[in-house]
Amino acid sequence: MFALLTLTLLGLITSPPTRDDVPALAMAAIEGDHEAVTKLRALGQPGLDQLVKLRRELSSVPPLFVGAQTPQVRAWEALVDAVSRQRYASESGLYWYTDLEAAKAEAKRQHKPILSMRMLGQLDSDFSCANSRFFRTILYPDPAIAQLLHDGWILHWESVHDVPKVTIDFGGGRVLTRTITGNSLHYALTADGDITEVMPGMVGPATFASWLRSAATVTNEVAALPRAQRPAYIAAYLDADRNARLTAWRLALARIGVRVTKDESALTAATDDSALNRLAALKGPIDISAPALRLVGAMMPNLPFVPAVMAMPLAVTKSRVEMPVLRQVNPVEGTLAKDEVQNELVLKTHILGILLAQPGRLAGDQLAAVTNDIYAQAFLTPLDDPWMGLAPYDVFTGLPPEFEKPTAAR
After folding, report:
1. What is the 3-state secondary structure (H, E, C) of 289-341?
2. Diameter of the chain measured on Cα atoms
3. Is 402 among the domain residues?
4. Residues 6+ apart with CB under 8 A from 314
5. What range does the domain containing 64 cover?
6. What is the CATH number of the domain that holds 214?
7. d(CA 153, CA 251)
8. CA angle 305, 308, 312 (to 5 degrees)
9. Residues 108 and 192 in one domain
10. Which residues contact 124 (CB under 8 A, 6 or more apart)?
11. Closest CA to 222 of 264, 260, 188, 173
């Protein structure tokens, strides 16, 4: 089949591309024609659907099982990612816009809401922030979520900042690189760009799917209103959601024996790391789909002979200096259950308060300002801080002053 497709490239495709052109354009792109990738991108989700189908006809081997793949399959994996603008896109089959105005135009054409993600790094890069890496390995490949996103939403992502990384040189040519911070937001937007809902951070697949359904409903309701009526409608919806979350938060703490009033400051103070762990334990296991499990399984590294979290405390005087970085290089970057509790109760409630403080900023032209406020006030990583709140000045490390302050990369 693909030998025959190669022969079709003897003629040039000069008219605007159609879905019938996908096989020929794909072969041209694999041969190094960058313009062919641009033409495939121009076909949007329908073009990607055909591209993913062609890739799956080549091989059923998932994208990370590189040892079991041929060079041809790996080339097709890279092409699907480039057209989708998402890593492991052959598993999710989702097309992402990176231009919000283009996404809004398509949303208006299809009468759909927009799911607009804000993140550190790039969704199609290996080293994007940890949340976005979890999205594309655990959430987006989930068949139920992929279907909801594919059929009901126009997808868009935007990088708000480069992702901070730390590199540890173990000597002997052994170097380990990890990202060290970064949170993400999923906004629900009308085709005009009005903010109707927001989901911070990482949650489990069932919670995310439920949020997608409710966010689509309210966004479509808002889109049906005259523009002048939208801010009040959205504010009333968000205020009711915030009150419900404050109640749920208080009741959740009561289940673990923590009694506190229905006040956000008091609830926040009571929800320390120990409380989060106990609340997470109440949730039970979170179901992960088979495609996501394949990706996760292929990513799990070989564990060291002695876990670093056991070895480090033996050198007590340096433990406090090194442990923050050590936690970032641990193979397991937190549990889904704990992330879900923190994001659903703590961060989401705080973010709703930020949105409600200035309801007029829910209009589309205020999206960047709202994002800046959330990163600064809720995530505590201000986007205008060159060190994103990570510069440590309160820990003695035994290093000279020139090594204490972050400096430009050498």
Report:
1. CHHHHHHHHHHCCCCCCCCHHHHHHHCHHHHHHHHHHHHHHCCCCCCHHHHHH
2. 74
3. no
4. none
5. 1-84
6. 3.40.30.10
7. 34
8. 130
9. yes
10. 81, 82, 84, 85, 86, 87
11. 188
Shared domain check, 257 and 124: yes
312: left (phi over 0), alpha (psi -120 to 50) or beta: alpha
352 falls within a domain = yes
What integer pLDDT is reported at residue 180 of this predicted model?
Answer: 76
217 lies in the same domain as 113:
yes
Whole-number Å distance between alpha carbons of 176 and 165: 10
189-205 confidence digits (pLDDT tens): 999 999 999 999 999 99
In terms of domains, do 51 and 133 share one?
A: no
Residue where one domain finishes, among candidates 84, 108, 126:
84
The CA-atom distances, in angstroms, between 410 and each of 16, 123, 169, 171, 386 are 46, 27, 16, 19, 16
Distance of CA 282 to the CA centre of its chain: 25
Q: Are residues 221 and 276 in the same domain?
A: yes
Of the three residues 34, 59, 84, the one that is the final residue of a domain is 84
Across 128-272, the runs of DSSP E, i.e. the strands, are 154-161, 165-171, 174-179, 185-189, 195-200
- The residue among 184, 218, 182 whose CA lies nearest residue 200 is 184
Q: What is the pLDDT of residues 258-316, one digit of tens each?
A: 999 999 999 999 999 999 999 998 887 788 888 888 777 777 655 444 455 445 455 44
As for how many domains the chain has, the answer is: 2
User: Are 65 and 191 contained in the same domain?
Assistant: no
Query: What CA–CA distances, in Å, run from 83 to 40, 86, 89, 124?
Result: 6, 8, 9, 10
- Cβ neighbours of residue 220 closer than 8 Å, sequence gap 6 or more: 113
Question: What is the SS3 assignment for 153?
Answer: coil
CB 185, CB 371: distance < 8 Å: yes
Q: Are residues 13 and 116 in the same domain?
A: no
In a domain, 409, yes or no: no
80 and 109 in a single domain? The answer is no
Check residue 88 and give left, alpha or beta (phi > 0: left; psi -120 to 50: alpha). Answer: left
Is residue 349 in a domain? yes
Q: 195 near 362, Cβ under 8 Å?
A: yes
Q: Could you tell me which residues come within 8 angstroms of residue 161 by beta carbon, excluding any fewer than 6 positions away?
A: 120, 182, 383, 388
391: pLDDT strictly greater than 90: no
The confidence score (pLDDT) of residue 106 equals 98
* Ramachandran angles phi, psi of 327, nearest 5°: -60, -30
